[in-house]
Write a sequence for this structure.
């Protein structure tokens, strides 16, 4: 198999944002409250949610909202209302309650937009978007976008780029994991020539209600989706339990994001050196730690196999890094695009765009997300 066929370099820039009910992960909790208004006064009915949690609500008649029992950690607070530009604020929640006065700005572009009826090309692009956004796993087959008509899809044939955006919140139903997802898409770009995708967004998750049998199945599938995920790995780094959790970590001496400069020759100790990730972690305070590494990390999760579809499509990094020291498992590469990132015990990291994931962790997308703090 040729190099270009062997590695298709999927990237993953998204802010794991989920959920919609009060969850308590143990430890210290705070209250986050505020008022939402515009230049004319309070705005009732605005959607407010904390990313990667089940905290979501609508402002009352006075424009007020309140979240109680919020565990300390990294969050993005999102406020969205039709006709207004979304409000985003990063929060590093510590030991004090948070109170916010939020003023939304009118989205003049949205007000002047002309509704265009989707054509055949739009439907074709929609199928590509769903594949690259929801994913290609078994869970993705049971995941659907309920209001896809709000998407603007633009394919540049000369540059081989598909771009997608939406002025409103996407509504997604994941029947495989039992979640209803509200998703603010901020960026999406798929390069069909290089077969790479970069996207960012903010989801909020609501647990679906089902029969006792359905909920048991969802619980089992959620556990499986979490195992070996980005959130699982970051949490294990924070708690220094990566060995017990089944992760092996190596440092790569030669790697270019996307793998395009990689020479497919026999692997050696020079190319990949086993490291102990705890040497990359520095405590900042009781709630946060700093993750800092200079060279890309090759991460192997030993407790699960790669899905047949993933290997059949030629994405598997294990073929590039054939190594007798490694057992069979899910292989990923993590690139740090900043001097460091801040991580917490829920598996959140700040800034999310500063970590670039390739291989299996990059292949798993929206259909396989679970909330922050899922395993607590």
């Amino acid at each position: 198999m040729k190099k270009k066929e062997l590695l298709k370099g999927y990237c993953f820039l998204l802010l794991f944002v989920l959920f919609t009910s009060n969850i308590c992960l143990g430890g210290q909790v705070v209250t986050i409250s505020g008022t939402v208004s515009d230049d004319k006064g309070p705005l009732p009915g605005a959607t407010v949610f904390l990313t990667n949690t089940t905290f979501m609500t609508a402002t009352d008649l006075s424009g007020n909202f309140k979240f109680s029992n919020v565990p300390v950690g990294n969050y993005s607070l999102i406020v969205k209302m039709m006709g207004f530009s979304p409000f985003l604020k990063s929060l590093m929640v510590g030991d004090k309650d948070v109170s916010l006065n939020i003023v939304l700005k009118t989205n003049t572009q949205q007000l002047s937009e002309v509704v265009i009826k989707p054509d055949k090309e739009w439907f074709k692009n929609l199928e590509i978007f769903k594949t690259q956004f929801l994913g290609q796993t078994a869970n993705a087959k049971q995941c659907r976008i309920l209001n896809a008509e709000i998407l603007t899809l633009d394919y540049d044939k000369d540059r081989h780029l598909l771009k997608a955006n939406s002025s409103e919140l996407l509504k997604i139903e994941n029947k495989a994991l039992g979640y209803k997802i509200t998703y603010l898409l901020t960026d999406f770009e798929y390069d069909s020539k290089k077969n790479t995708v970069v996207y960012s967004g903010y989801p909020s998750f609501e647990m679906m209600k089902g029969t006792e049998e359905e909920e048991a199945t969802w619980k089992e599938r959620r556990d499986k989706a979490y195992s070996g995920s980005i959130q699982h790995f970051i949490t294990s780094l924070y708690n220094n339990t990566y060995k017990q959790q089944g992760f092996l970590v190596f440092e790569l001496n030669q790697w270019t994001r996307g793998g395009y400069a990689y020479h497919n020759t026999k692997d050696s100790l020079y190319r990949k050196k086993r490291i102990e990730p705890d040497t990359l972690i520095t405590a900042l305070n009781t709630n946060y730690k700093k993750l800092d590494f200079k060279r890309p990390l090759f991460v192997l999760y030993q407790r699960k196999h790669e899905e047949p579809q993933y290997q059949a499509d030629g994405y598997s990094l294990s073929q590039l890094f054939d190594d007798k020291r490694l057992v069979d498992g899910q292989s990923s590469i993590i690139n740090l695009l900043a001097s460091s990132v801040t991580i917490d015990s829920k598996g959140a990291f700040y800034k999310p765009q500063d970590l670039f994931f390739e291989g299996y962790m990059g292949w798993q997308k929206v259909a396989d997300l679970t909330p922050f703090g899922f395993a607590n």
User: Anything to note?
Assistant: The first strand starts at residue 29 and ends at 38. The longest helix spans residues 120-134. Residues 1-26 have pLDDT under 50 and may be disordered.
